[in-house]
Request: fold
Amino acid sequence: MTRPQSIQTSVDPVIFTVFDDKLHILVVRRNIEPYNGCWSLPGGLIDCKEDLDIASAATRKLKEKTNLSGCYLEQVATVGSASRDPRGWSITIVYFALIPRPGEIALTATHGASEVRWEPLNNDGIGIPLAFDHEKLIKMALERLRSKVSYTSVAAHLLDEAFTLLDLQNIHEIILGRKVEKKTLMRRYIGSDLLLKVPENRHEGRMRPAQLYQLKERNKVHYFVRSMEGPREE
Amino acid sequence: MTRPQSIQTSVDPVIFTVFDDKLHILVVRRNIEPYNGCWSLPGGLIDCKEDLDIASAATRKLKEKTNLSGCYLEQVATVGSASRDPRGWSITIVYFALIPRPGEIALTATHGASEVRWEPLNNDGIGIPLAFDHEKLIKMALERLRSKVSYTSVAAHLLDEAFTLLDLQNIHEIILGRKVEKKTLMRRYIGSDLLLKVPENRHEGRMRPAQLYQLKERNKVHYFVRSMEGPREE
DNA sequence: AAAATAGTGTCTCTAAGACAATATGCG
DNA sequence: CGCATATTGTCTTAGAGACACTATTTT
Reply:
């Protein structure tokens, strides 16, 4: 009753980005026990001195590896049990983050993590073994991302500030793993008045350049009333 | 770095039920510091010896006050900061639970809580002041409940095992705070094949008795593809 | 003008909102 | 039978899927 608890409490950000037509997440290689040498999520303990609240702990972890701040961050779920860490009762609060332009980001290794890299995801999650229950945590984050992408405008946060509707379509198709009608995205984004035309265009190749847009409110996520349902069954 | 964390970790179940045509939640009166004498959620610290995981901590709290088990329980979010508890860094994992037939439940006070009662909710949340940030936690749970009710079959978990479509309609209207078309519920529940007819009927008054139904799968929540949007704007 | 992608038109389909019409069980 | 509620019918509407058609820019 009055004896002190001993629950280790950490945050685990699942940091998503898209390049090479694939969804990737950030993983780090542990160089401490337990699971020394294993790949894992770039999480870590909440620091009662540093962190004012849970979100700032997640933001701090994100910043340590990517030096980014201000990107989209959403709490997914909290997992905790006596058995998920061999050292005893532990809790982790899982977040997901969306990062645009990964090419321009310098990843930095920190204490406890000797290497940092982007690992591609396949349909079911990650393809390499991970420490702790991190594979499960990634599946939870991926499921949340997919579901949210199908009924909100959140996917736009994976794109550069200015983007075309084709970019938007590609991102949706990569995350959902299926064809998405460009007309649907047009209706959703333009119809809900989410986008602002950007005057300049991109000139690539010999074809008609697409209109560049940016989100009117970079910090809001719009909820559409329906979920995209995908191709009709025959 | 290696100094032990001292984060108090608790679960706070927001236990919803409906009676007298109003949504209610369970509150307890604290008889320990801090906030001695204040009403609060029926939460408490995770017990590393008792609880195998977070969900079982929430289940235990629920059982302590209501002696119920097996009712619908869903994790809402986790809130934690240096400032939400005057004693220092603390985290709470918020759950919501749905309880049918509150009339038949004997509430039991436990250590740390001298009184237990159902408190009605109004549109914006609870009408009495509560300890800590519990008012905020309730708003989060209420928002989640409302949103979930409008695109899933979760509201049925607030009803007795056998219920009529009118019961279902009433529950929806109470939670959402607006009229809901009975035809919509008919289409959703019957059309998605969620219900089983119960042979006996209820005979109340001198009118045609309504068909009694029960959920085919008591432990599943069905996700409808659209959200109920409410009355059309003119 | 041709190439090649951008953007629009429009038909169908599903499920919700609205509400009228019909069915049913009981006194 | 008639009352009061239950259940069904069905019209309208919004928005997605499908896909053809038109528009635009550059070479």
Observations:
- Chain B touches chain A at residues 4-9, 45-46, 48, 51-54, 75, 77-83, 88-89, 91, 93, 225-227, 229 (CB under 8 Å).
